[in-house]
Amino acid sequence: MNSLLNKLISLFAIAASVAFAAIDPEMEGMEVVSRDDGTFLVGSPTFYFDRALGAGGIHSESELWTPRKLRYRQLFNRLSVLPSWDPIETPSVWMKTGNELGDLIYQDFVTDPSDRPVNRTPILEAGIRTPLWHGLWATFRLFQDDHYSTRTSGYRKRIVDGSFSFFGENWPMFSSFYGGLGYTNNLIDASVLAGMEYVWLFTESSRWIPVHYNPRVETRADFWNFSTTLVYENAEYQNKRKKESGERHEVNGSVVYNCGEDCKHGMLQLSAGLAFRFLDDDGVVYTGLQDNRVLWPFLEMRVRPMEQLKFDVMFGVNNRDWLVQDSIEYRVPVLEKMNVTVGAKNIAGTRLNPIADTHEYFDGDTISLTASGKMNLLQGYVNFEDSLTGFLGFGLRGSFWAEYGAETFEVNEFVREDGYTFRQGDVARINSWITGVTGEFWLKLWFKDLLKFTALTGFERIDGKEKRFEVNPSEFFVSFNADWLIKKTFRISHSLRYRSDAEWNLRSVDPLVVKGDWYWDATFEQRFPKWGITLAGSIIQALGDEVVETPNGNYSRVRFFCTAKKAF
Known about the structure:
The protein is mainly beta. About 5% of the residues lie in helices and about 60% in strands. It has four helices and 34 strands. The radius of gyration is 24 Å and the shape is globular.
C-alpha cells in the first residue's frame, strides 16, 4: 500500500478513532485472525499468540488456565478452541468450503510438477445436527483446515506415514471427525461423541509433533447446577525418520458446581469444581506429566454488596501448584448516560496452566516446562464511556500494570535441522519487575439496526530491566469496523485495521520481526428466514503482505470461504 494511502488512513484514524465487526471466522477459535485490539500472531489454527492490549503481563491468553476454558482442548501447554468438539446447538445441516487465493487449479493438469505455481490450500467442513425426537438427537461433523500448512509441509510429511489427514495431500495442521448422540430436555443436556483426528502440536522446543487420536471419545452432561465432562484419548505418536513411535492413553475431564439462578441474584455467589488428567504412556511420547496425573480443585466466588461494586476471586491449588485470579470493580454513579468504571486485578501463582504437561523430551534432552518460584501480576484500570446523542458515543480506557516473575524460556542451545530452528533449555522466570501503561480510545456510530460503526485506537508502552520477552507485543493499533443489516436479512461486515511491529525473541538466534501492516476482512451474508437458509461468504486478510507470523509457522495468506446452512 503506498505511503499516501497510509497517511490518509492514519489521518482518518486520529480524527475518528469498540466493538468488533461481525466477521465470520473460518472456524470457531479462529476469531483471533480478525482481532484488532492487540497482538494476535497466528502460526496455525492450533497455535497462536493472542494478547489483547490492556490485558496486562507478557503472556498470551491461551497460556492462562481459567474455569471458562474447562472444555477447551489441551494442546501441549496451551488451551485451544480448535479442534472443537462442542456440538452445534441449532438443528441444521451445513457445509463450508474455501481456498487461498492464487491457486490455478487447471495448471495441475497441464504442467509438470516442477513448473507448477506454489500450491494454495482449502478449508472443508460438513455436518448435521438432527432435530429433537423425544429429546434425542444425533450429530456428526467432518472439518479440516488446510490453511497455514504449506510452508512446513515438506518437513512434516517426512516424519509421518501417509497424508496424516482424512483427505487431500496438504498435511493440514488438523483434520477431525466425530459423530454421536445426545439427549436434551428441561432437566438435562447430555451427549456422547466419538471420532478420530489428526493434530500437529507446537511445543516449547519449536517442533511440530504429529498426534493421531484414534479413537477420541467425549461425554458431557449438564444437569441442575452441575456440568461434567469425561474424555478418553488414545494418542498415537510417530517420527518415521527416526523410527520412533509411542502411545498415550489419557482420561481427562472436569466436574463443576455452578451458581444457580437464585444464587446469581444474591450478594454471595459460589462455584467449585475439579479438573483432572490421568495418563499412561507407552513407547516414545515427546511430552510428560509428573506422576502421570494431575488433580486441580478450584473455587470461584463473587461478592456483590451493592449493584455498583463487585469482588471476584478464583483460587486453585494442588500438591504442585497454586493459582489465584482476583479483581475488584466499581461503577461510579455519575450521570445517567455516562459509565465510569474503576478496577484492579491480580494474577499470582506458580504456573499459568497448572494442568499442562511438565516436561518435553527433545534429542535426549529433557525440557522442564515448570519454573521455580511464582509470578505476580498487578493491574489497575479506569474505563469511561458516554453516549453523546442517540446515535453517537465514545469511550476511553487506561491501565497500568506491573509483573514480577513472568514466565519466560532460558535458551541453552539452538539446533538447526532441515532449515528450521529448534531450541533447548527450560522454562524460567524474569525475576525483575516489568511495567506497562496502556490507553485506548473508541468512537461509536449507529443508526437503528441498519448501521453500527466503531473506530478504535490504542497504544501500550512496556518497560523493565529485561527487554527481550518471548514476544514483544505491538505498541500501537488502529481499526475501523462496520456492520450493515439491510432489511433484516442481508448483512455486510467490514474490518480494516493496522497493527505495528511485533517481535519473537527467544525461538531463533536472530529475532523474528513481524512487520506492522494493514489488514482488511469482509463478510457478506444473506438469510432466507422462511426456509431457514443462510448463505455467507468471507474474504480474510485481503490487504497486507503474506508473512510468517510465528517461528516455524506458516504463511498467512489471502483467502475466502463460503458457508451454506439449512436450519430445521
